[in-house]
Write a structure and sequence with these properties.
This protein is mostly helical. It is built from 13 helices and 2 strands. The protein has a two-stranded antiparallel sheet with strand order 1-2. A hairpin with a 3-residue loop joins strand 1 and strand 2. The longest helix is centred in the middle third of the chain and has 32 residues.
């Protein structure tokens, strides 16, 4: 059952990547993040009666998880705004490596033979993506899928920076996944979902004030922001319930989550008309093969 819940998370996550990029065509990263987390808080507010009763220490841990995601989403949204969605989808698969490392070191999860082979496939797929010459042809995109008018050297530098942001987001999301597993041992899904969303709204509100970001009225009419808000609640609720199962493992859960890459690549091809899809599809196929092998273990 917990694997099915994580699969639901992965499928919605793939569609969510498409929604992110569409939402960012009309509004800034800060606008989208602040408004969609606020809407998410409103959607999960009926769970308030079940969200009470945490200790001060537990509130601090939830606040820490929220801060990790706060930074991860800023990095991730900035990356997906500028990079092709299909490329971001494949790069996101690297969190498998980070989550596995955390699961082994912190939770004592074991690397079985099948998990080891699966990780080799995942690593190989990522290396193939990195060193294939086609990746150099990817252009950093701006706003409504327009290429930046920069010299080639600046494009490479800018592209590398946003790829770094994508990897940073992966690392922080892996840390968040570890915290989910730990926190769900001592609280219910309603408590974690409501309070982490609550802290997220506070963080983004402070961030917007410090950066003096003006929230335009158009963001409230951006249908993609509303879809993001509903999607994150369904995703996180499924994931938190899955984490509550004693037999669930973050190494396997992270592998299953990466089914989202298939939807991201399809979305990149048919929604955003991106190029080099064949190369990315081959990389994703290698990585997904590793995921399937890892689940067998």
């Amino acid at each position: 059952m917990w694997m099915l819940l994580v699969l639901v998370y992965g499928i919605i996550k793939g569609f969510r990547e498409i929604c992110k990029k569409k939402a960012l065509e009309k509004n800034s990263v800060t606008e989208v993040l602040l408004v969609y987390t606020f809407l998410s808080l409103l959607i999960c507010s009926p769970q308030i009666p079940n969200a009470m009763g945490l200790s001060f220490r537990q509130y601090l841990w939830v606040a820490l998880k929220a801060f990790v995601i706060f930074v991860a989403w800023i990095a991730g949204f900035k990356a997906i705004k500028k990079l092709p969605i299909s490329l971001c989808g494949v790069l996101d698969l690297s969190r498998v490596l980070f989550a596995t490392l955390l699961g082994v070191i912190v939770l004592g999860e074991k690397i079985t033979f099948y998990k080891g082979i699966g990780l080799l496939f995942v690593s190989g797929g990522l290396l193939f993506l990195k060193f294939n010459p086609f990746i150099k042809k990817e252009k950093v995109m701006e706003g409504e899928s327009k290429e930046l008018a920069l010299p080639e050297s600046e494009n490479k530098s800018s592209n590398s920076f946003f790829i770094f942001l994508a990897f940073l987001s992966c690392i922080l999301n892996a840390v968040s996944g570890l915290l989910d597993k730990i926190l769900m041992k001592e609280m219910n899904s309603s408590q974690l979902l409501f309070w982490y969303t609550f802290f997220m709204v506070i963080y983004y509100a402070i961030y917007a004030l410090v950066r003096r970001v003006k929230i335009s009225r158009t963001v409230w009419k951006n249908v993609w922001v509303w879809i993001l808000a509903v999607g994150i609640i369904v995703m996180d609720k499924s994931l938190f319930i899955a984490n509550a199962y004693p037999e669930s493992q973050i190494t396997i859960m992270t592998l299953i989550k990466q089914t989202s890459v298939i939807i991201a690549i399809i979305g990149g091809k048919f929604v955003f008309k991106e190029k080099n899809i064949l190369h990315k599809s081959i990389c994703a196929a290698i990585i997904v093969t590793g995921i399937l092998i890892g689940i067998m273990g």
